[in-house]
Design a protein that fits this description.
Blueprint: H1 8-21, H2 38-46, H3 59-75, E1 82-86, H4 89-103, E2 110-114, H5 120-128, E3 131-135, H6 145-151, E4 156-162, H7 174-184, E5 187-191, E6 217-220, E7 233-237, E8 248-249, E9 257-258, H8 268-305, E10 318-321, E11 333-334, E12 340-343, H9 350-364
Helix pairs in contact: 2-8, 3-8, 4-5, 8-9
The structure holds ligand 0PR.
């Protein structure tokens, strides 16, 4: 550290210069994050110093966390779901598997997950000492439910399905997984970190949530399609009491027990998440999602006109292509199978899609 502090103006010109080194979202087509909605940014600023790790000091902010859980629980067709605001999909997935592991005491626990699952499950299995059993995908990159049964045994503590896969934007056959989970008496965790804020707002959403009796828990991230500030995730459970198995004593806090993974937790991004849901409502979210899906379809159509076929028709706003050319100045990503991947987040407007297609056309010309 400096012996003597630096003048504020110098400090901020230094910080601004660093910030200018960041890429603007304008040309980023690879991200599942997006600039926060203006009401999210405004709410965030009001709650900067709030800490949900000691909720008795911030009862107003804690009530907003409860409201977030109730709103997302209702969206998932279970207003009384248990839950808390996590730092994102990774923490939600770790905590869901912790609960599942606690619920079934076996010597060599394993989890059965699709090959498409997010790498947060690799971290979760490492931390929790779980064997990760990876189920292959079908031709459309969905978990092959025919194969699932063969991977489950008496040591299986959880089955996982994904709603809106990170790389191909497809939804696993959750209804079938829920049947298998009930039949084999296994905890079913649904990773809807991305798709949880998309699928419910589609014209004809496939059921994937607590309406299916076999679904035990759901990850859903406001800091992705919920346009909140970072970090804002949420883990929901069918039974609120399930969190008790994670409790540790916190004798000197305003609460005596805590089930969260993090101790100090931001209230600002939780207020931001609530702000977006309240401001937009179902109608507003439907409009945002309809726009993203429309842009996804237009992008696919445009790319196919250039001779770059889609890898799969996605269920959410993630488009993938057989295409090895990249127009300069754009950020796209490449899946593990070598497909070009573009996430049509709210900042990827129709204009952005058209500009991208013009640039793609130019490299071909
Ligand atoms: N589950 C799914 C289905 C996800 O897609 C992700 C993240 C997670 C869990 C983990 O969520 P957190 O990152 O919130 O812990 N998916 C994105 C990805 O890995 C995250 C991301 C977002 C990466 C923006 C890059 C980026 O620029 O691609």
């Amino acid at each position: 550290m400096r012996e003597v502090g630096c003048p504020e103006e110098d400090l901020f010109s230094f910080l601004s210069s660093k910030r200018r080194e960041d890429l603007g979202y304008r040309n980023i087509l690879s991200s599942m994050c997006t600039p926060p909605h203006p009401v999210a940014a405004r709410a965030h600023a009001i709650f900067l110093e709030t800490n949900l790790g000691d909720p008795g000091l911030f009862p107003g902010t804690a009530a907003l966390e409860d409201l977030l859980v109730r709103r997302l629980g209702t969206l998932m067709h279970h207003a009384d779901a248990g839950g808390y605001a996590t730092s994102g999909g990774t923490e939600s997935n770790i905590q869901a598997l912790r609960i599942a592991k606690r619920q079934k005491s076996v010597k060599s626990p394993n989890v059965v997950i699709p090959a498409s699952s997010h790498f947060s499950f690799t971290k979760a299995c490492d931390i929790l000492g779980l064997e990760m059993r990876t189920v292959p995908l079908d031709a459309e990159f969905r978990m092959d439910t025919e194969a699932v049964d063969g991977f489950i045994d008496n040591n299986t503590v959880a089955l996982v399905g994904v709603v809106g896969t990170t790389e191909y934007g497809v939804v696993d056959p959750i209804a079938r997984l829920a049947e298998i989970a009930l039949d084999r008496d296994v905890f079913l965790h649904v990773d809807a970190a991305f798709g949880g804020m998309v699928v419910p707002f589609l014209d004809s959403p496939v059921p994937f949530d607590f309406r299916l009796p076999g679904v035990s828990s759901i990850s859903i991230d406001p800091h992705k399609m919920g346009m909140s500030t970072i970090p804002a995730g949420c883990l929901l459970t069918r039974n609120p009491d399930w969190f008790a198995c994670l409790n540790v004593d916190t004798p000197y806090l305003t609460v005596k027990r805590e089930c969260t993974l993090a101790g100090t937790r931001p209230g600002a991004s939780v207020a931001a998440a609530v702000a977006v849901l309240e401001y937009l409502g179902m109608d507003g979210m439907r409009a945002v999602v309809a726009g993203c899906m429309e842009n996804t379809r237009r992008l696919i159509e445009g790319m196919e006109t250039f001779g770059y076929p889609r890898a799969v028709t996605p269920d959410v706003n993630v488009a993938t292509f057989s295409c090895d050319r990249m127009p300069p100045g754009w950020r796209v990503s490449t899946t593990r199978n070598g497909h070009m991947r573009i996430v049509c987040m709210p900042h990827v407007t129709r204009d952005v899609v058209e500009r991208f297609l013009v640039d793609m056309g130019d490299i071909d010309a």
